[in-house]
Amino acid sequence: TLGIYPVTASLIASFLSALTMLGMPAEVYTQGTQLLAVLFFVPIISFVTGEVYLPLFHNLQLDSSYQYLEMRFNSTVKLVSGGFYTFSLMLYMAIVVYAPALALEQVTGIDVDISCFLIFFVCVFYTSVGGIKAVVYTDAFQLFFMFLSAFCIMIVATREAGGFMAVYEKNYQDDRIQLFNLDPDIRERHTFWGTFLGFGFIWLNVFGVSQTQIQRYLALPTIKDAQKAVRLNFFFMIFLILMMGWLGMVLYAVYAECDPITAKQVKTKDQVLPLLVLHVAGDIPGLPGLFMAGVFSGSLSSISTGLNSLSAIALRDFVPPKTSAKLTSVQQALLTKVFSLLFGIIGYALTFGVRFLPGMLEAAVTIGGVIKGPIFGVFTVGMLLPWVNSTGILVGFFGSLFTVAWIATGGTINKHFIPYHSRTSPSYPSNLTGCPANWMSDFKPKEPSVLTPLPGHLPLYDISYVWYMLIGAVITIILALITTIFTSQNLKTLDRKLLSPVLPKLWSCLPGCLSRRLNVWWESIGEDSNRNEFEIKSLEIK
Fold first, then answer.
1. Of 365, 273, 314, nearest in space to 64 by CA
2. CA 409, CA 58: separation in Å to the nearest integer?
3. What is the tens place of the pLDDT at every residue in 228-282?
4. How far apart are alpha carbons 339 and 333 in whole angstroms?
5. 525: region left, alpha or beta (phi > 0 left; psi from -120 to 50 alpha)
6. Alpha-carbon gap, residue 394 to 48, rounded angstroms
């Protein structure tokens, strides 16, 4: 077991990757502050994680969260869900490596491919040698540099931008400060509902059922310690997210009169923050290096976490049980090292593909929504809806996966031809009136192109990327329940330990007569399973 504070630090570091440190300021710079409304959902995430998902996993003490799906449904559900999760996590690792590599290229000129290779090499080495304990303690060490670098750059950049009030007033005057855009249109890129519910459920998926976080919860000795770690995690995470949001506002205050993306001083919006660091801190010894240390700390923590989780999933879920049972502990440890190396090589190879995606934050959320939304629905159904069996959940999973993949693919393709123009979001920065002469010497304005929609364009393709996760989970649940009409779970054979212990707490608040009936029904679940266990124990005693 590990201490509560290293585990809490590891939870924060593994989630707040380089993607957060580069992508979130870039998103606030280009789209305003509405994205930060997700912080209002944090207390809900903390409560639901600690009361619904965490107690079940902690009671079962499984090496892989996907082992639960085999116990609740069958091995097919486990393999399908685990396989798609593995694929999405490898894509995510490629994205969070490529983002800081772009930043390093902007700051030092080091080739992107060399940076990506070195990150994967370092992570594979210490993940293989030290396992989960090495990952947790290095995460805690890296989190320190993430906070330190973000704080120092925030102070220096705010001072260079004219101070706190100057930054705030510039963003306020240009209508960049939004938190309560209550427009119900799900085509709008960022609204209060989209960030509160859309991004909120993305975070709930990460902290509620993701293997990367479940491993850390189970490293703590008691459920109380795990719940405390969840609360501390969100408390400190709020501060870092607010710092990233403020840096996005500073970016706008500095570059409002000269957008470096339009001026072609950077390739993507994820390079704007490194450019700012060079401008405001280039003459301060060590500060650009400290910034890069923080960015790469975020990347290293996410990659090491991902490799460790994927190795555990591969060993427990993909290796046949008969083969795994024959392996000694030393052989199993060696096999996890081989898996870490293999996943590291695949992740590095995928960096050559993710560079063609749009902004890194949007790409990660889109991929995660398409794949992890249905997976989140599978776990939620398994824990809260005892009537659904393996047939129902597979129908729900694949129906949801194909539907959300179709919407996301159509949206990604069509926005290059005729993107949806928001009615409520701030305009994208494009002003060049305040650019220095050396920026504009070789600048050639881009000829405006005539946008024509592709044949077969549907309004569904304009849905904002933030909704993909929630849509995927909801479709999974609905299709699983519909299928249950035709084929359902035998509740008498279902082990009650595989359902969330929060269920009896929910109906304890109902009127007495209804609550008593539900308690009787709850006690009837698993009658045959409990009877069989009792008979087996009686035979063992005899």
1. 314
2. 37
3. 888 888 888 888 889 899 999 999 999 999 999 888 888 888 888 888 888 887 7
4. 10
5. beta
6. 25
Amino acid at 52: V
Residues in the chain: 542
Give the contacts of 454 (CB within 8 A, at least 6 positions apart).
413, 414, 417, 418
- 66-100 burial, b if ≥16 CB within 10 A, otherwise e? bbbbbebbeeebbebbbebbbebbbbbbbbbbbbb
Closest residue by Cα to residue 157 from 245, 241, 244, 254: 254
> One-letter amino acid identity for 160?
E
User: Terminus-to-terminus CA distance in the chain, angstroms?
Assistant: 37
Is the CB of residue 64 less than 8 Å from the CB of residue 213?
no
**Cα(198)–Cα(193) distance, integer angstroms:** 7
Helices (H), 161-271: 164-173, 192-193, 200-209, 211-218, 223-255
**What is the DSSP secondary structure assignment for residue 421, as one 8-state letter?**
P
How far is the C-alpha of 433 from the C-alpha of 262, rounded, in Å?
A: 11
Q: What is the pLDDT of residue 540?
A: 38
Ranges of residues in the chain with a pLDDT under 70 are: 1-2, 106-107, 126, 129-135, 358-359, 447-451, 453, 528-542
- Residues 396 and 483 sit within 8 Å (Cβ to Cβ): yes
**HSE of 366 in the Cβ direction (CA atoms, 13 Å)?**
22
Q: Are 270 and 22 in contact, with CB atoms under 8 Å apart?
A: yes
Buried b (16+ CB within 10 A) or exposed e, 181-220: bebeebbbbbbbbbbbbbbbbbbbbbbbbbbbbbbbbbbb
**What pLDDT score was predicted for residue 240?**
84
Which of 448, 510, 451, 15 is CA-nearest to residue 216? 15
Angle between helices 390-414 and 75-108 (to 10 degrees): 30
Residue type, 466: V
d(CA 323, CA 335): 12
Give the other-Cβ count within 10 Å of 239's Cβ.
13
pLDDT at 165: 94
Q: What is the largest CA-CA distance in the chain?
A: 92
pTM of the model: 0.88
Q: What is the structure's pLDDT at 541?
A: 40
Rounded CA-CA distance 542/538 in Å is: 6
How far is the C-alpha of 512 from the C-alpha of 4, rounded, in Å?
A: 39
Those residues with Cβ within 8 angstroms of residue 213's Cβ, 6 or more apart along the chain or in another chain: 11, 14, 15, 206, 207
User: So what's the pLDDT on residue 399?
Assistant: 96
**189 in helix, strand or coil?**
coil
Residue with tokens 């309560």: 180
Amino acid at position 115, single letter: S
Cα 246 from Cα 330, distance rounded (Å) = 48
